[in-house]
Amino acid sequence: SAKVKEAPSSSLSSSSSTGFYTEILHQLIQSSSISLPPIKPYNPKGVKPTWFNSDLICAYHRTPGHDTEGCKALQAVVNNLLEESDLLLEEEEQ
pLDDT 10s per residue in the chain (94 long)? Predict the structure, then answer.
């Protein structure tokens, strides 16, 4: 099981440059606990969903459209790892 240090709650604010899911993703990649999904470029000719924002890039999907913190797929992966006890959050010592 992968151990991920949990950032202090004060550093989880939305103004933080590295958010909770971004940090967990980085640590999961470093520990080879997850593999990233294949890159699927967004079809610019199609109708964009209302949530699509080309200025935001998701580190999990590695494509524009949404940010890492709002990535529902990454949130589901992290939640599944937590439920399966494959991911342990450790509180960071201050």
Answer: 555 544 444 333 333 457 999 999 999 999 998 999 999 877 767 788 888 999 999 999 999 999 999 999 999 999 998 888 767 666 655 5
User: What type of residue is 62?
Assistant: R
Contact indicator for 94, 9 with CB cutoff of 8 Å? no
**In-domain check, residue 34:** yes
Report the domain count for the chain.
Answer: 1
Residue 12 lies in a domain: yes
Long-range CB contacts (within 8 A, 24+) of 53-58:
none
pTM of the model: 0.72
The answer to whether residue 43 sits within a structural domain is no
For 23, 60, 85, the CA distances from 8, given in Å and listed in that order, are 12, 22, 21
Domain that holds residue 86: 2-38+52-91
